[in-house]
Amino acid sequence: xxxxxxxxxxxxxxxVAFFATLDTATKLILTTVPMMMxxxxxxxxxxxxxxxxxxxxxGWGIWRTARPGLQLLRGLVLVSSSLAAFxxxxxxxxxxxxxxxxxxxxxxxxxAALLFGERVTSLRWLLVLGGFSGAMIIIRPGGESFSSALxxxxxxxxxxxxxxxxxxxxxxTEDPMTMHLYTGWIGTLxxxxxxxxxxxxxxxxxxxxxxxxxxxxxxxxxxxxxxxERTPVxxxxxxxxxxxxxxxxxxxxVFSHTPDGWSLLGMCVIAGCGASGTWLTLRQSRTAQQAR
Length: 292
Hints:
mainly alpha, 80% helix, 13 helices, 0% strand, globular
Protein backbone atom coordinates (compact mmCIF):
# COMPACT_ATOMS: atom_id res chain seq x y z
CA UNK A 1 0.00 0.00 0.00
CA UNK A 2 1.47 3.45 -0.92
CA UNK A 3 2.77 5.55 1.97
CA UNK A 4 0.30 8.32 1.07
CA UNK A 5 -2.57 5.88 1.55
CA UNK A 6 -1.21 4.78 4.93
CA UNK A 7 -0.87 8.44 5.94
CA UNK A 8 -4.46 9.07 4.82
CA UNK A 9 -5.72 6.12 6.86
CA UNK A 10 -3.81 7.33 9.93
CA UNK A 11 -5.27 10.82 9.49
CA UNK A 12 -8.76 9.35 9.13
CA UNK A 13 -8.41 7.35 12.34
CA UNK A 14 -7.13 10.48 14.10
CA UNK A 15 -10.05 12.51 12.77
CA VAL A 16 -12.73 10.09 13.97
CA ALA A 17 -10.99 9.85 17.36
CA PHE A 18 -11.34 13.64 17.66
CA PHE A 19 -14.99 13.44 16.53
CA ALA A 20 -15.69 10.86 19.24
CA THR A 21 -13.98 13.18 21.73
CA LEU A 22 -16.18 16.02 20.45
CA ASP A 23 -19.38 14.05 21.09
CA THR A 24 -18.20 12.83 24.49
CA ALA A 25 -17.18 16.34 25.59
CA THR A 26 -20.46 17.76 24.27
CA LYS A 27 -22.53 15.28 26.27
CA LEU A 28 -20.52 16.14 29.40
CA ILE A 29 -20.81 19.90 28.80
CA LEU A 30 -24.57 19.78 28.32
CA THR A 31 -25.08 18.54 31.87
CA THR A 32 -24.26 22.05 33.17
CA VAL A 33 -23.91 24.49 30.24
CA PRO A 34 -26.92 25.92 28.30
CA MET A 35 -27.20 24.15 24.95
CA MET A 36 -27.30 27.29 22.77
CA MET A 37 -24.22 28.69 24.48
CA UNK A 38 -22.32 25.44 23.86
CA UNK A 39 -23.52 25.35 20.26
CA UNK A 40 -22.48 28.97 19.66
CA UNK A 41 -19.00 28.31 21.04
CA UNK A 42 -18.61 25.21 18.87
CA UNK A 43 -19.29 27.25 15.69
CA UNK A 44 -17.40 30.34 16.86
CA UNK A 45 -14.26 28.33 17.58
CA UNK A 46 -14.46 26.63 14.18
CA UNK A 47 -15.10 29.91 12.33
CA UNK A 48 -12.24 31.79 13.97
CA UNK A 49 -9.76 28.90 13.67
CA UNK A 50 -10.58 28.37 9.99
CA UNK A 51 -10.35 32.08 9.20
CA UNK A 52 -6.99 32.47 10.98
CA UNK A 53 -5.53 29.47 9.11
CA UNK A 54 -7.07 29.90 5.65
CA UNK A 55 -7.35 33.64 4.94
CA UNK A 56 -3.62 34.49 5.37
CA UNK A 57 -2.73 31.70 2.93
CA UNK A 58 -5.50 32.16 0.36
CA GLY A 59 -6.37 35.83 0.70
CA TRP A 60 -9.79 37.45 0.99
CA GLY A 61 -10.72 36.05 -2.41
CA ILE A 62 -11.45 32.77 -0.64
CA TRP A 63 -14.84 34.31 0.31
CA ARG A 64 -15.97 34.51 -3.33
CA THR A 65 -18.79 32.14 -4.15
CA ALA A 66 -21.02 31.65 -7.17
CA ARG A 67 -23.76 30.09 -5.02
CA PRO A 68 -24.41 32.36 -2.01
CA GLY A 69 -27.97 31.10 -1.63
CA LEU A 70 -26.85 27.48 -1.48
CA GLN A 71 -24.04 28.40 0.91
CA LEU A 72 -26.63 29.92 3.25
CA LEU A 73 -28.97 26.95 2.92
CA ARG A 74 -26.15 24.48 3.50
CA GLY A 75 -25.07 26.38 6.61
CA LEU A 76 -28.63 26.40 7.97
CA VAL A 77 -28.97 22.66 7.35
CA LEU A 78 -25.79 22.06 9.34
CA VAL A 79 -27.04 24.24 12.21
CA SER A 80 -30.27 22.21 12.24
CA SER A 81 -28.22 19.01 12.34
CA SER A 82 -26.11 20.36 15.21
CA LEU A 83 -29.19 21.42 17.19
CA ALA A 84 -30.68 17.94 16.86
CA ALA A 85 -27.32 16.35 17.71
CA PHE A 86 -26.87 18.42 20.87
CA UNK A 87 -30.42 17.64 22.00
CA UNK A 88 -29.88 13.94 21.25
CA UNK A 89 -26.61 13.80 23.20
CA UNK A 90 -28.41 15.13 26.26
CA UNK A 91 -30.49 11.95 26.35
CA UNK A 92 -28.68 9.26 24.34
CA UNK A 93 -25.37 7.55 25.07
CA UNK A 94 -22.47 8.53 22.81
CA UNK A 95 -21.90 5.05 21.32
CA UNK A 96 -25.53 4.51 20.30
CA UNK A 97 -25.75 8.05 18.93
CA UNK A 98 -22.58 7.61 16.86
CA UNK A 99 -23.70 4.26 15.44
CA UNK A 100 -27.06 5.59 14.22
CA UNK A 101 -25.54 8.75 12.72
CA UNK A 102 -22.96 6.55 10.94
CA UNK A 103 -25.77 5.45 8.63
CA UNK A 104 -25.24 8.67 6.63
CA UNK A 105 -23.52 7.05 3.60
CA UNK A 106 -26.40 4.59 3.22
CA UNK A 107 -29.04 7.32 3.61
CA UNK A 108 -27.20 9.44 1.02
CA UNK A 109 -27.54 6.50 -1.39
CA UNK A 110 -31.28 6.46 -0.72
CA UNK A 111 -31.67 10.23 -1.12
CA ALA A 112 -29.61 10.27 -4.32
CA ALA A 113 -31.96 7.67 -5.80
CA LEU A 114 -35.14 9.46 -4.70
CA LEU A 115 -34.10 13.06 -5.43
CA PHE A 116 -31.73 12.75 -8.38
CA GLY A 117 -32.85 9.51 -9.97
CA GLU A 118 -29.44 7.88 -9.58
CA ARG A 119 -29.39 4.17 -10.33
CA VAL A 120 -29.06 2.01 -7.20
CA THR A 121 -28.36 -1.72 -7.49
CA SER A 122 -30.29 -4.36 -5.59
CA LEU A 123 -27.24 -5.05 -3.42
CA ARG A 124 -27.07 -1.38 -2.37
CA TRP A 125 -30.77 -1.39 -1.48
CA LEU A 126 -30.08 -4.50 0.62
CA LEU A 127 -27.25 -2.71 2.42
CA VAL A 128 -29.50 0.30 3.09
CA LEU A 129 -32.15 -1.99 4.59
CA GLY A 130 -29.47 -3.80 6.58
CA GLY A 131 -28.19 -0.54 8.00
CA PHE A 132 -31.66 0.52 9.08
CA SER A 133 -32.22 -2.88 10.66
CA GLY A 134 -29.05 -2.24 12.70
CA ALA A 135 -30.50 1.10 13.84
CA MET A 136 -33.76 -0.61 14.81
CA ILE A 137 -31.83 -3.20 16.84
CA ILE A 138 -30.29 -0.32 18.81
CA ILE A 139 -33.55 1.64 19.16
CA ARG A 140 -35.79 -1.44 19.71
CA PRO A 141 -39.21 0.25 19.44
CA GLY A 142 -41.55 -1.25 22.00
CA GLY A 143 -38.73 -2.78 24.02
CA GLU A 144 -38.05 -2.13 27.68
CA SER A 145 -35.03 0.03 26.89
CA PHE A 146 -36.84 2.10 24.25
CA SER A 147 -37.04 5.84 24.74
CA SER A 148 -38.44 8.42 22.36
CA ALA A 149 -35.10 10.23 22.74
CA LEU A 150 -33.55 7.42 20.66
CA UNK A 151 -35.45 8.81 17.68
CA UNK A 152 -33.49 12.09 17.87
CA UNK A 153 -30.36 10.60 16.22
CA UNK A 154 -32.60 9.74 13.25
CA UNK A 155 -33.31 13.47 12.82
CA UNK A 156 -29.58 14.14 13.01
CA UNK A 157 -29.05 11.41 10.43
CA UNK A 158 -31.52 12.94 7.98
CA UNK A 159 -30.17 16.49 8.38
CA UNK A 160 -26.54 15.35 8.18
CA UNK A 161 -27.20 13.24 5.08
CA UNK A 162 -28.88 16.21 3.39
CA UNK A 163 -25.87 18.37 4.30
CA UNK A 164 -23.41 15.84 2.85
CA UNK A 165 -25.49 15.41 -0.31
CA UNK A 166 -25.48 19.19 -0.83
CA UNK A 167 -21.72 19.20 -0.21
CA UNK A 168 -21.12 16.51 -2.84
CA UNK A 169 -23.03 18.59 -5.40
CA UNK A 170 -21.59 21.99 -4.48
CA UNK A 171 -17.97 20.85 -4.36
CA UNK A 172 -18.08 20.52 -8.16
CA THR A 173 -18.11 24.32 -8.49
CA GLU A 174 -17.17 25.64 -5.03
CA ASP A 175 -13.86 25.63 -3.15
CA PRO A 176 -14.11 23.27 -0.12
CA MET A 177 -12.35 25.82 2.10
CA THR A 178 -14.82 28.50 1.04
CA MET A 179 -17.66 26.17 2.01
CA HIS A 180 -15.97 25.45 5.35
CA LEU A 181 -15.64 29.17 6.09
CA TYR A 182 -19.28 29.86 5.28
CA THR A 183 -20.62 27.00 7.40
CA GLY A 184 -18.59 28.15 10.39
CA TRP A 185 -19.66 31.80 10.22
CA ILE A 186 -23.28 31.10 9.28
CA GLY A 187 -23.52 28.82 12.31
CA THR A 188 -21.92 31.48 14.49
CA LEU A 189 -24.28 34.23 13.31
CA UNK A 190 -27.43 32.11 13.61
CA UNK A 191 -26.65 30.88 17.12
CA UNK A 192 -25.57 34.39 18.20
CA UNK A 193 -29.24 35.46 17.97
CA UNK A 194 -30.09 33.27 20.97
CA UNK A 195 -26.84 33.91 22.85
CA UNK A 196 -28.06 36.85 25.04
CA UNK A 197 -30.73 34.56 26.53
CA UNK A 198 -28.44 31.55 26.81
CA UNK A 199 -25.28 33.10 28.24
CA UNK A 200 -24.22 31.87 31.66
CA UNK A 201 -21.21 32.28 33.94
CA UNK A 202 -19.00 29.23 33.58
CA UNK A 203 -16.35 27.76 35.82
CA UNK A 204 -12.77 27.26 34.65
CA UNK A 205 -13.46 23.53 34.28
CA UNK A 206 -16.45 24.21 32.02
CA UNK A 207 -14.43 26.58 29.83
CA UNK A 208 -11.72 23.93 29.49
CA UNK A 209 -14.36 21.44 28.33
CA UNK A 210 -15.69 24.01 25.84
CA UNK A 211 -12.19 24.52 24.42
CA UNK A 212 -11.72 20.75 24.15
CA UNK A 213 -15.03 20.55 22.27
CA UNK A 214 -14.06 23.35 19.89
CA UNK A 215 -10.55 22.01 19.30
CA UNK A 216 -11.85 18.49 18.69
CA UNK A 217 -14.23 19.75 16.01
CA UNK A 218 -11.62 21.99 14.33
CA UNK A 219 -8.75 19.48 14.42
CA UNK A 220 -10.98 16.58 13.41
CA UNK A 221 -12.29 18.38 10.32
CA UNK A 222 -8.78 19.59 9.41
CA UNK A 223 -7.35 16.05 9.65
CA UNK A 224 -10.21 14.72 7.53
CA UNK A 225 -9.50 17.33 4.83
CA UNK A 226 -5.82 16.30 4.83
CA UNK A 227 -6.88 12.65 4.55
CA UNK A 228 -9.11 13.41 1.55
CA GLU A 229 -6.16 15.12 -0.14
CA ARG A 230 -3.93 12.04 0.24
CA THR A 231 -6.20 9.04 -0.07
CA PRO A 232 -9.11 8.00 -2.32
CA VAL A 233 -12.43 8.19 -0.50
CA UNK A 234 -13.19 4.52 -1.16
CA UNK A 235 -9.95 3.51 0.61
CA UNK A 236 -10.38 5.65 3.72
CA UNK A 237 -14.16 5.42 4.14
CA UNK A 238 -14.24 2.03 5.96
CA UNK A 239 -11.97 3.45 8.66
CA UNK A 240 -14.51 6.18 9.43
CA UNK A 241 -16.60 3.50 11.17
CA UNK A 242 -13.82 3.23 13.76
CA UNK A 243 -15.56 6.24 15.32
CA UNK A 244 -18.12 3.82 16.77
CA UNK A 245 -15.34 2.01 18.66
CA UNK A 246 -13.85 5.31 19.87
CA UNK A 247 -17.32 6.41 21.01
CA UNK A 248 -17.75 3.18 23.00
CA UNK A 249 -14.37 3.83 24.69
CA UNK A 250 -15.28 7.47 25.41
CA UNK A 251 -18.65 6.54 26.88
CA UNK A 252 -17.04 3.89 29.06
CA UNK A 253 -14.23 6.15 30.33
CA VAL A 254 -16.33 9.25 31.02
CA PHE A 255 -19.82 7.93 31.77
CA SER A 256 -19.10 4.30 32.75
CA HIS A 257 -21.54 3.22 30.05
CA THR A 258 -21.16 -0.07 28.23
CA PRO A 259 -23.63 -0.87 25.42
CA ASP A 260 -25.67 -4.03 25.98
CA GLY A 261 -25.43 -7.03 23.67
CA TRP A 262 -28.26 -5.94 21.38
CA SER A 263 -26.78 -2.45 20.94
CA LEU A 264 -23.36 -3.93 20.14
CA LEU A 265 -25.01 -6.20 17.57
CA GLY A 266 -26.74 -3.20 15.97
CA MET A 267 -23.46 -1.29 15.84
CA CYS A 268 -21.73 -4.22 14.12
CA VAL A 269 -24.57 -4.48 11.56
CA ILE A 270 -24.35 -0.75 10.77
CA ALA A 271 -20.55 -0.81 10.48
CA GLY A 272 -20.67 -3.97 8.34
CA CYS A 273 -23.26 -2.59 5.94
CA GLY A 274 -21.45 0.74 5.68
CA ALA A 275 -18.07 -0.86 5.04
CA SER A 276 -19.62 -3.22 2.49
CA GLY A 277 -21.16 -0.26 0.69
CA THR A 278 -17.73 1.37 0.52
CA TRP A 279 -16.17 -1.84 -0.84
CA LEU A 280 -18.92 -2.00 -3.48
CA THR A 281 -18.17 1.62 -4.50
CA LEU A 282 -14.46 0.81 -4.80
CA ARG A 283 -15.16 -2.27 -6.94
CA GLN A 284 -17.52 -0.37 -9.25
CA SER A 285 -14.98 2.46 -9.59
CA ARG A 286 -12.24 0.02 -10.60
CA THR A 287 -14.55 -1.68 -13.09
CA ALA A 288 -15.42 1.68 -14.67
CA GLN A 289 -11.73 2.63 -14.93
CA GLN A 290 -10.88 -0.67 -16.60
CA ALA A 291 -13.74 -0.20 -19.04
CA ARG A 292 -12.42 3.25 -19.99
